[in-house]
Design a protein that fits this description.
Blueprint (H helix, E strand, L loop, with lengths): L1 E10 L2 E11 L4 E5 L6 H9 L6 E6 L2 E2 L5 H6 L2 E3 L12 H6 L10 H6 L1 H21 L15 H13 L5 E5 L7 H18 L2 E5 L3 H7 L3 E5 L2 E6 L1 H6 L1 H9 L2 H10 L2 H15 L1
Parallel strand pairs: 3-8, 3-9, 6-7, 7-8
Antiparallel strand pairs: 1-2, 1-4, 4-5, 9-10
Helix pairs in contact: 6-7
Length: about 280
Amino acid sequence: MLEVDGLVKAFGGFHAVDGCTLRVAKGEILGLIGPNGAGKTTLFNLVAGALQPTAGTIRFLGEDITALPTDARFHKGLVRTFQIPHEFHNLTARENLMMVPPRQPGENLFANWFAAGKVRAAEEAVRQKADDTLAFLELTHVADERAGNLSGGQKKLLELGRTMMTDAKLVLLDEPAAGVNRTLLRKLEEKILILNRERGYTFILIEHDMEMIEKLCAPVVCMAEGKVLIQGDFHTVRSDSRVLEAYLGETPTAVEREAAEHDPKVEELREQELHREDL
């Protein structure tokens, strides 16, 4: 489903992603782990289209999407979530979901004037899908609550619901466990598994919670220093000496990379490129 070949992303002289190659098959939940500064989030930004690679290619469903903008990838079914949820604070949970589907008839001024019946029918269908999604996520009781008032776990469930409103084929989940209490985390894990096993969703999941990775993910990929260190089942990856060194060794190279990735000049270059992509 997804093929990443020789991907490189340089910010000045710093390579946040350095020759990364991996494959994601349809129906997998691939876990992406690695220490801070390994390049995981930068890889997500490249796959989602928020950043353009310095070198390498990205193929999705057999098509080269390396140069496609984020919205074009979204329309093809490649959707991402964020470590910090990006909800519309002042809209209700239901309204947040109803905002997601693209190309709704109500967005067209002339349709509102000359095809009002079609617009109403489309809005009702979207509303019903939003309500069905909230029911699946067990969030019906907060359907009319402002999204900004939801708990961290409820916001993560709502982020997952937004991917469901697009009928996504591949979902990039960025640290879904962050800021979520254990009860809601178990619920989130359950919903991801149902979407994967019963509804055919494919996932790539960045996560530091190894319990969640062990429960959900096969295969598991460990990144370090911008490269894929190893790919395999959870227990093989966890016991690999290179993985242990990457997490625990605190080698000078690892420390230098972590410092470089948070260097103000590198951050400025990253922000400049993200700003260009938004224009």
